[in-house]
Amino acid sequence: MMNQKRREDMARRIAALARVQDMAHATVLEIGADRDSIGAGLLVEAGAARVISTNFGIDWTSSDDGTVARRLLDARRIPDAFEAASLDAVFGVAVLEHIDGLEAFFAGARHALKPGGVLYVHGGPIWSCAKGHHLGLTTGERQYKFSRPELNPVGDWTHLTLGRQAMADDLAARVPHEDAQAIAAQIYESTDRNRLGYRDICDAFAKSGFTLIEQHDNAFRQPPAELRAQIERGRYGGQERYDVTGVTFIARSS
Fold first, then answer.
1. Where do the domains of the chain lie?
2. What's the pLDDT tens digit per position in 18-68?
3. How many C-beta atoms surround the C-beta of residue 225 within 10 A?
């Protein structure tokens, strides 16, 4: 269930979309939609005549009331589902970190958008930030979640310096052994995140052919100098910014 804070954030983002795209009678593709259709409802309130509300979850149910259509969609395969120049806007919040194939997503969005149509897309927490491991796991009666300090046993940025077994060994000092293994497996092996850092995401967008209107980086703190040097030496280095938790691109299709 989307809480009030998230609802307010979604409303603010849709208002930002409406400032650069006339929403009256617009057809909007929503990527990574919430199961309660709150985002879709807010898009309709903003003026959209038709919202195609999509997700890639296996439990996503399809429906269509004439204004909001719920569809299962792989965001990397938009051209398979939409004709060229058929959409006025593509909108997605907290999706960039989940799409393993951003080049295909951006290309598909360009295919489906009308000339002058707008892409509003956000990602976060992205892999290169302190909590980019995106932990969210329930094991038995125990719950682990990156957004709640009391439920997050993973040290900030340690997912960028450790491997799967080293992470499990580190966690075993704070959580049951079987949970440590499950958390490490989710961080490094789950298929619901792309493990792209800030520079990787920005580079993928730069190659997309969209004309950037605005970019917003949500930045907090950088890792300590010694830890940052360790990150840079490892597999996930070269990302330039380790303080950016989320990035938003607002762009126009030519």
1. 4-126+194-233+240-252, 136-189
2. 999 999 999 999 999 998 999 999 999 999 999 999 999 878 999 999 999
3. 8
